[in-house]
Amino acid sequence: MTLQRIEDVADGTKLFIFDRPAEYEYKSGQYCAIRLADLVEPDPKGAARSFSFASSPYEGELAFAMRSGESGYKKTFWSLKPGATVEATKAVGFFTEPEENDQPIVFLVGGIGITPARSILRQADHTGGKRDYMLFYANRFEQDATFHQELKALEQSLPHFRYITVLSRAESPAAPENDERGYITGPMLEKYISDIPHRLYYMVGSGEFIDAMESLLAGFGVMKEQCFKDPFTGLRKPAAK
Fold first, then answer.
1. 135 within 8 A of 164, measured Cβ to Cβ
2. For residue 131, how many other CB atoms are within 10 A of its CB?
3. Final residue of a domain: which of 59, 88, 117?
C-alpha cells in the first residue's frame, strides 16, 4: 500500500490513509497486519503489527489510526511520508456485525480502540442501516478522544446512534446529556440502557479494560454469546509475582 496522506485526529494520534489495492476486500470491524521495510531503530516485537481498519468498506482508501509511542515500530510509522509503501496482509477477524439479526449494538471502547467501531458506524451511515447503536467511549480527557467531533456529527446523520463520552480525568463538569466522568460502571449503563441483557456488546481496549467490561455485563445476566471483544495484544500488565 502507498501512503496518501496523514491527518491529526486527537492529541498524539494520527490517521494514516493509504491507497486501496485493487480487489482488496474487508468487512467493518476486521483488521490486517502491516509490515514496515526498515525500522529507524530496533524493536523487540519486530517490524509488523496488527491494525483494525478505521476506514469502511465503501471507501476507496484504507485508513489506520495510531497513537505516538517509543517503540521502533511506532517511531518508524510516524516518520512515514506520503509516497512511502508498506506491506499488508489480507483482512481477518470476527469483530463484525451479525447478518442474521438486527439486535441493538452497544460499543464499550477505550482509547484508540475506537477504530473498528468507527468503521462499523460509518458503513451503517453510508448504507442507511436501521440497527440501533450506542457508544460508550472512555478516555482520560476529551482531547484524547479520537474522532470525537466526527462521532458527534454522526449522531445527526445516523438516526439510531447515541454517543456517550466517559472521561476519567477531566476536571470540567459533565454536560447535561451524553457526557460522563469516571469509568464505565453498572449505574452508568442503567442510566442509558433499559434492556441491558437484550443487546449485543462490542468491547475494544486493553486486556484489563475488557476483563472489567465482561465482569460488569455478566452481573447483568448478559450471555457470552452476546459479547464480542477485540483486545489490544501487548497491553496487558504482567501478572504480579
1. yes
2. 17
3. 88
36 lies in the same domain as 123: no
**In-domain check, residue 237:** no
Number of independent structural domains in the chain: 2
Q: What is the pTM of this model?
A: 0.94
Distance CA 200, CA 202 (A): 7
- Residue given cell 445527526 in the structure block: 156
Cα–Cα distance measured from residue 184 to residue 187, given in angstroms and rounded to the nearest whole number: 9
Other C-beta atoms within 10 Å of 202: how many?
Answer: 26
Which 3 state secondary structure label does DSSP give 122?
helix
Between the alpha carbon of residue 54 and those of residues 66, 88, 115, 126, the distances in Å are 10, 15, 4, 14
One-letter amino acid for residue 169 of the chain: R
Task: Supply the range of the domain harboring residue 200.
Answer: 105-231
Alpha-carbon span 168 to 183, nearest angstrom: 6
The domain that contains 21 carries what CATH number?
2.40.30.10
pLDDT over 90 percentage in the chain: 93
Q: What is the pLDDT of residues 70-123, one digit of tens each?
A: 999 999 999 999 999 999 999 999 999 999 999 999 999 999 999 999 999 999
Q: Do 118 and 74 belong together in one domain? A: no
Same-domain check for residues 226 and 109:
yes
- As a whole number, mean pLDDT of residues 171-191 equals 97
What is the per-residue pLDDT for 239? 40
